[in-house]
């Protein structure tokens, strides 16, 4: 059985994702494709546009055979831990031989250089940290500082025989968010000796941050921005949205998104503003032992100083942003505060390499042979009915699963407040079976 894994958010699913799945099947000759997806909260420190079951359904209708949820503590972590969790989860299933991901890599040379960068980051030389600290002190954001420090190390390493052209290629590759994540996937494979062969699909169409929706291959961020634009004229906006979605997403996804639009079922950070404000106030009144990390301590102090002027989540993040800290990193920090993700939970996640179990969200009926193989070979618990299976987990796994349940309940409560849609409790929510 030839099984390929994909790590994704599908937030929302669009033509680019459909293209990636199609190319993945072609490149790997896969019998089955498993997607590990973020749940109700995503890596940029925000709620998903739609709940995880709707997004799982989108993927199952468009080429994926089985969907597994990435635990919320992993899905909302840094790129390194996000990639580590996804890769280790796929590897621990015991049946996945390849992992497919997109990258801005147009040639075999580019793919080779991504591999060389992955080797470098998997086993960073001691001098790297010194260069990283220097770049951070100069005012660079962490991603920019990391790239600068890596390029300096690579340029100085004699065995790399770095010429100016290769250096320029490295610099260009490190400038892309998708390439950074691709490098993290490859790094995790090397660092944890995973039995996964990388398969790179060249990204086409709009870039990661491109807001253009006048294309068949618009980015997920462009779709979200379009959806959350001014909605004062509901009828005209519905027609305009329909036209845009007709270009950018598969028909089944368009129907689901239009239904969600009419039901006011799309969520974003600012829908959680009041909950975040109350939680930050509570933590200021009842502080707990915090990390010794200087950056985090500085951020905590800025939060305390600026909380009085809090208006909403997005504006508060903008107020807290500095040269060294990105909007996304701060938003993730606030999301962790809201969800109660503390050092104890993070240590529990690290114990399992951010892959404590594999919770199945849905599958296609014709993938039953795949399910049998998973049950026979998985090295981590397979969860289908958590009301029965929770008791078989270790105390640490139970805490991480309880966090997933809490996050979903919080998401569903805000969804109900905004749309009137009431979803079942996580212990009673059925799997998506197509």
Automatic annotation (TrEMBL):
It is found in: Cytoplasm. Coiled coil: none annotated. One of its GO terms (cellular component) is cytoplasm. One of its GO terms (molecular function) is ligase activity, forming carbon-nitrogen bonds. Keywords: ATP-binding, Cytoplasm, Ligase, Nucleotide-binding, RNA-binding, tRNA processing, tRNA-binding. It comes from the Bacteria. Its EC number is 6.3.4.-. It catalyses: cytidine(34) in elongator tRNA(Met) + acetate + ATP = N(4)-acetylcytidine(34) in elongator tRNA(Met) + AMP + diphosphate. GO terms for biological process: tRNA modification. Belongs to the TmcAL family. This is tRNA(Met) cytidine acetate ligase. It comes from Eubacterium ramulus. The lineage of its organism: Bacteria, Bacillati, Bacillota, Clostridia, Eubacteriales.
């Amino acid at each position: 059985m030839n099984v390929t894994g994909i790590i994704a958010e599908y937030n929302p699913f669009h033509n680019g994702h459909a293209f990636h799945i199609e190319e993945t099947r072609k490149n790997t000759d896969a019998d089955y494709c498993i997607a590990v997806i973020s749940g109700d909260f995503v890596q940029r420190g925000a709620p998903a546009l739609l709940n995880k079951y709707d997004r799982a359904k989108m993927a199952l209708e468009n080429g994926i055979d089985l969907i597994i949820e990435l635990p919320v503590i992993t899905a909302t972590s840094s790129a390194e831990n996000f990639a580590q969790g996804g890769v280790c989860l796929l590897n621990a299933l015991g049946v996945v031989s390849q992992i497919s991901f997109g990258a801005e890599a147009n040639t075999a040379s580019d793919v080779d250089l991504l591999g060389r960068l992955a080797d470098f980051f998997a086993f960073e030389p001691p001098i790297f940290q010194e260069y990283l600290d220097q770049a951070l002190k100069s005012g660079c954001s962490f991603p920019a500082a990391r790239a600068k420090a890596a390029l300096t190390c690579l340029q100085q390493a004699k065995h790399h025989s770095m010429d100016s052209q290769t250096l320029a290629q490295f610099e260009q590759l490190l400038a892309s968010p998708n390439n950074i994540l691709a490098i993290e996937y490859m790094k995790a494979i090397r660092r944890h000796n995973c039995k996964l062969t990388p398969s790179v699909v060249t990204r086409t169409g709009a870039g990661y941050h491109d807001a253009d929706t006048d294309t068949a291959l618009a980015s997920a961020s462009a779709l979200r921005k379009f959806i959350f634009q001014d909605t004062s004229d509901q009828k005209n906006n519905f027609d305009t949205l329909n036209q845009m979605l007709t270009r950018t997403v598969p028909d089944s996804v368009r129907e689901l998104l239009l239904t969600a639009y009419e039901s006011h079922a799309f969520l974003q950070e600012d829908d959680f503003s009041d909950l975040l404000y109350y939680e930050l106030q509570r933590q200021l009144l009842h502080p707990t032992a915090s990390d010794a990390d200087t950056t985090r301590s500085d951020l905590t102090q800025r939060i305390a100083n600026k909380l009085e002027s809090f208006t909403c989540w997005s504006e508060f993040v903008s107020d807290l942003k500095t040269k060294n800290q990105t909007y996304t990193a701060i938003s993730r920090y606030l999301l962790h505060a809201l969800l109660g993700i503390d050092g104890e939970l993070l240590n529990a996640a690290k114990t399992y390499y951010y892959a404590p179990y594999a919770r199945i969200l849905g599958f296609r009926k014709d993938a039953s042979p795949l399910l049998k193989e998973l049950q026979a070979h998985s090295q981590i618990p397979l969860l289908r009915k958590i009301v029965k299976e929770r008791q078989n987990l270790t105390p640490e796994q139970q805490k991480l699963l309880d966090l997933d349940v809490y996050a979903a309940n919080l998401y569903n409560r805000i969804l109900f407040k905004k749309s009137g849609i009431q979803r079942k409790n996580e212990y009673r929510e059925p799997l998506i079976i197509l």
